[in-house]
Amino acid sequence: MSAAMPLSSKTNHHAEREIHTCVISLAGNPDTNEQIKKVEHFCGLYNAMNQEEKKRAIYQHLTGHLPPVSVNEAKALALSERPLTGRALGEVAQRQNGEIAAYRAAVNAWFADCDNNWEHIIPQETLVLHYRWQNEHAARFVAKVNGVVTHTALTYFENQRRHQRHTGTRWLIIDKKNHRHALTLPVTANVHFHDSLNFYYQHQDGNERIYNFMGQPLMKVNCSPETSLAAILSHEVDRKEYEKLQSTLLREQGDAGSAIALNQRCYAADALWQQERLNGQVINKSDAVADVSFYHAIVISDSVTYISDTSVEGEESLTITKIILTREDKISAFAARLTATLGRDPTQDEVEERVARFGIDSR
């Protein structure tokens, strides 16, 4: 197989699910513009919305404030009313650029007090590949492919309140300030290695400290000081199990719909997340943005793409797999989000009303 020509194929998985694959040889130097463009086309990069576009779509949905037309549309509209000189058209363009800039400023101002953060519906670690071999050209190429897949992955705004105290994804980070000194720390007799997680912990000066397996210290962040080490480890173990199950659903069963729904079912089972959402208060702007952003991400996404390594005729290669989302997948994702936000299973009418609001036919 030529390094310049990826092999693309289409297959049917169980339940008539449509799955596309793209296999690229990593022999020689696969890191070419031609290869990257083929990956971008396969992953639908040019159809993916960037974060600013997503913010404007969320803003429009929640406020009803429609964006101004483009400069070219404004020119065409002006010319349809009467003939204009080049100078007059330039003035039309200048005014329209001013309206567009004002609209974008209004969007940014509206989001200024909205405490949200971008979240992946399926963790990036499940979607990307870490290259471990010796071909530097292949390593650079795989890194670029990872970037394309991550950019086109299902992402949405999630309320950051839950990160402030308990979420496992943000509890443990490397303390890079002490990075160099930490690498030389000895592993002493009072070290405890965790059975399921890639770090160990020990008692020092009456305090429990956590290290990864390279000896780098990890910190408790975005959680209250009284949060116990046992609670952190328990939450991390639960998160790892969730990621394993989601990866199995996606990679082994090709069930992207259930993998997406599992993401929200975990929120439904999260007692603190439920407490913050259902404490009798009116849903705030951050909650509303998170909800609309999730639904919008599902509506505009046609597939879930991930990459893995494989062997074709003994050659090192990279396989990109794209699972096409069905209407049923999207309805299932909507129902799972409603379960999380309502704290109960939604009725059929509630699901139908929500999907219809975002333009999906549930019949």
What attributes characterize this protein structure?
363 residues; alpha+beta; 5-stranded antiparallel beta sheet; 4-stranded antiparallel beta sheet; 13 helices; 11 strands
Describe the structure.
The protein has 363 residues and is α+β, with helices and mostly antiparallel strands. 47% of the residues lie in helices and 18% in strands. It contains 13 helices and eleven strands. The strands form three sheets. Strands 5-9-8-7-6 form a five-stranded antiparallel β-sheet, with no helix packed on it. The chain has a four-stranded antiparallel β-sheet with strand order 1-2-11-10, covered by helices on one side. A two-stranded antiparallel ribbon has the order 3-4. Helix 1 packs parallel to helix 6, helix 9 (256-268) packs parallel to helix 12 and helix 12 crosses helix 13. The longest helix is centred in the N-terminal third of the chain and has 26 residues, at 86-111. It is globular and about 65 Å long. The chain starts with 6 loop residues before the first strand and ends in a 6-residue tail after the last helix. Mean pLDDT is 78; it is low at 1-6 and 162-188.
Q: Secondary-structure map with pairings?
A:
Layout: E1 7-12, E2 18-25, H1 33-43, H2 51-63, H3 71-81, H4 86-111, E3 116-120, H5 124-127, H6 136-151, E4 155-159, E5 172-174, H7 179-182, E6 192-193, E7 199-204, E8 207-212, E9 217-220, H8 229-252, H9 256-268, H10 271-277, H11 285-300, E10 303-312, E11 315-324, H12 327-342, H13 348-357
Antiparallel strand pairs: 1-2, 2-11, 3-4, 5-9, 6-7, 7-8, 8-9, 10-11
Helix pairs in contact: 1-6, 2-11, 3-4, 8-9, 9-12, 11-12, 12-13
